[in-house]
């Protein structure tokens, strides 16, 4: 029987995992995987040591993008050579959507049990902070921090939409400067995003799947240029309806393996949905940095 360290966030999403933990253990055991279970809490000082000293065949994490990002950072920084399994049980689950994991929790367990893996890219900020799916700065980012927890558990990602739309009437733009290896870009913009995949805040069509490869050593940087409230709301709803608006003249898309981002003003920064450091920052792509289970 294979052995796995199973790490779960008990308050992620609708808190389904704590309620169905016995069924989860049963499903893994039926698939010949024995779990040693670790419950994430506010204080997790011993988590790095537990992961580093693990004698298990694999590490499995259950939670939202922030939880998965935290554990992947430990795996990468500590150079742990074990496959990483992800169960997206948070509100948006952008990373598990990007790698094609099923929506159903128990179907995802079956995928993990089949043992197919691949190496994927991750982003690293200032040579310190790791992200699996996205980094974002500007408007709407604060909405992800302030969305009501009870509302998120009841209606999922729509809690973010409602909170974000309440900010449209008070939109603010920033003088943002982007440096790549080839060029310097200066724009008055509302939002800057570095994206590893096609999903952002549960928007599934931010970029066309046919053009995205999360193992190619590059990511996409998206700038939403200064717009009036009506233009911004129309852009927001077009993406919500899965209409690909990436060709809008209000959007700039850059592709590369390193970006330097500057702004003289304070901007809220989100890394996989969690609060990040202040600008300026350097963002690099670590190509095929982590081995994960995939369908």
UniProtKB/TrEMBL annotation:
GO terms for molecular function: kinase activity. Pfam families: DAGK_cat (PF00781), YegS_C (PF19279). PROSITE patterns: DAGK. InterPro entries: ATP-NAD_kinase_N, Diacylglycerol/lipid_kinase, Diacylglycerol_kinase_cat_dom, Lipid_Phosphate_FormReg, NAD/diacylglycerol_kinase_sf, YegS/DAGK_C. It comes from the Bacteria. The keyword Lipid biosynthesis applies. Residues 1-129 form the DAGKc domain. SUPFAM superfamilies: NAD kinase/diacylglycerol kinase-like (SSF111331). Its cofactor is Mg(2+). The keyword Metal-binding applies. Keywords: ATP-binding, Kinase, Lipid biosynthesis, Lipid metabolism, Magnesium, Metal-binding, Nucleotide-binding, Phospholipid biosynthesis, Phospholipid metabolism, Transferase. Belongs to the diacylglycerol/lipid kinase family. This is YegS/Rv2252/BmrU family lipid kinase.
């Amino acid at each position: 029987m294979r052995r796995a360290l199973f790490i779960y966030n008990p308050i992620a999403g609708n808190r389904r995992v704590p309620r169905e933990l016995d069924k989860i253990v049963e499903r893994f055991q039926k698939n010949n995987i024995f779990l040693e279970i670790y419950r994430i809490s506010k204080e997790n000082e011993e988590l790095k040591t537990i992961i580093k000293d693990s004698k298990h065949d694999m590490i499995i994490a259950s939670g939202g993008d922030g939880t998965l990002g935290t554990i992947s950072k430990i795996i990468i920084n500590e150079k742990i050579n074990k496959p990483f399994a992800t169960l997206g049980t948070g509100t948006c689950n952008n990373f598990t959507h990007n790698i094609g994991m099923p929506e159903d929790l128990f179907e995802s367990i079956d995928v993990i049990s089949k043992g197919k893996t691949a190496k994927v890219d991750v982003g690293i900020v200032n040579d310190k902070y790791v992200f699996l799916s996205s980094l974002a700065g500007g408007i709407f980012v604060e909405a992800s921090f302030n969305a009501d927890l009870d509302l998120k558990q009841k209606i999922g990602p729509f809690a973010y939409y409602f909170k974000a739309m309440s900010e449209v009437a008070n939109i603010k733009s920033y003088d943002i400067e982007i440096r790549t290896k080839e060029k310097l870009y200066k724009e008055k913009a509302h939002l800057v995003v570095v994206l590893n995949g096609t999903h952002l805040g549960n928007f599934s069509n931010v970029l066309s799947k046919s053009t995205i490869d999360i193992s190619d050593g590059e990511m996409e940087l998206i700038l939403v240029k200064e717009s009036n409230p009506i233009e911004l709301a129309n852009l927001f709803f077009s993406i919500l309806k899965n209409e690909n608006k990436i060709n809008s003249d209000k959007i700039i898309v850059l592709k590369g393996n390193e970006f330097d981002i500057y702004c003289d003003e304070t901007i809220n920064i989100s890394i996989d949905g969690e609060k990040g450091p202040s600008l300026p920052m350097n963002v690099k792509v670590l190509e095929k940095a982590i081995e994960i289970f995939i369908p």
